[in-house]
TrEMBL record:
This is RNA-binding protein. GO terms for molecular function: RNA binding. The keyword RNA-binding applies. The keyword Cytoplasm applies.
């Protein structure tokens, strides 16, 4: 799933931008945090949250097929 999410983010983020995806497992729920520079957060979230919503939908479909529970968050790189 992490590789799938990385591929989606790579298509959206500007070329050459460093980003990171953290994965945390807790009580059967896997949380993925997309860490991007502050100036790239708008691209990942999209107008009215449509881009992140689409990312979440695609990942949720894949997770459902694999019988997993996921949560996707976006944050800035420190």
């Amino acid at each position: 799933m992490k590789e799938f999410l990385e591929k989606l983010v790579s298509y959206i983020a500007s070329e050459g931008v460093l980003y990171e995806i953290k994965e945390e497992l807790s009580d059967g729920l896997t949380t993925y945090t997309i860490l991007v520079p502050e100036e790239e957060i708008g691209k990942i979230i999209g107008k009215e949250g449509k881009v992140i919503s689409a990312i979440r939908t695609l990942c949720r479909l894949k997770a459902t097929k694999e019988q997993k529970r996921i949560l996707i968050k976006v944050d800035r790189i420190q």
